[in-house]
Amino acid sequence: MDSYGELAVGAIVSTTVSKTDNSEQKLRRRILRVEPHTELRWTATQLVRALAYDEQYFKLKPVENNRVRLSIGENISGI
Description:
By secondary structure, this protein is mostly beta strands. It contains no helices and six strands.
């Protein structure tokens, strides 16, 4: 997987994903939130948004003994 673009709120990041059948899928994501060392949140930019809204995120939370808990989530709404 390769991603290109500015990591800033409102920016578009392009990602190319290699699939198991050796084909590639190109995705475009709009950055919604960037909190260094805490949270990264984005949404799709495809036409599918007319039917459904898909928001994904990574959250980091410090825990004891210099460890970090990674939460990965997705919020979907629509038809």
